[in-house]
Amino acid sequence: MIYKICDKCKGTNTKTLIPKLKEIDSNAEIQIGCQNFCGIGRSKSFVIVNHTPIIALNEDELIEKVKEHLIENEK
Questions:
Q1: 3-state secondary structure of 46
Q2: Residue 74 has what pLDDT?
Q3: What is the CA radius of gyration of the chain?
Q4: Helix orientation angle between 14-24 and 59-74, rounded to the nearest 10 degrees
Q5: Interval 11-62: pLDDT, tens
Q6: Sign of torsion, CA 53 55 12 25?
Q7: What phi-psi label fits residue 51: left (phi over 0), alpha (psi between -120 and 50 degrees) or beta?
Q8: E strands along 1-75, which residues?
Q9: Residues 6 or more apart from 4 whose CB is under 8 A from it?
Q10: Do residues 33 and 2 make contact, with C-beta atoms less than 8 angstroms apart?
Q11: Do the beta carbons of residue 11 and residue 62 sit within 8 Å?
């Protein structure tokens, strides 16, 4: 899986998010840079998983949504 995150958005903390993504997907390819989600990223956490944006109010909720997304795509 490819995970794209922004290191400029205030809603995302790359220092805490990257280890959590690696924990749920040890083979994660994480690309860091502007994702053009500036409006959303100002107040919400987000990650783009294989071209699918996942958005949540906070990082813990985001990780739960990513887990759900991974389970759905295994089917």
A1: strand
A2: 80
A3: 11
A4: 30
A5: 999 999 999 999 999 999 999 999 999 999 999 999 999 999 999 999 999 9
A6: negative
A7: left
A8: 2-5, 29-32, 45-49, 52-56
A9: 30, 31, 32, 33, 35, 47, 48
A10: no
A11: no
* Token pair in block for residue 72: 């759905």
The answer, yes or no, to whether residue 75 has pLDDT greater than 80, is: no
Phi, psi dihedrals of residue 54, rounded to the nearest 5°: -120, 125
pLDDT for res 30: 97
Token pair for residue 50? 């294989």
- Average confidence (pLDDT) over 50-75: 94
Alpha carbon separation from 8 to 2, 35, 40, 55 (Å, rounded): 19, 10, 12, 16
Amino acid residing at 49: V
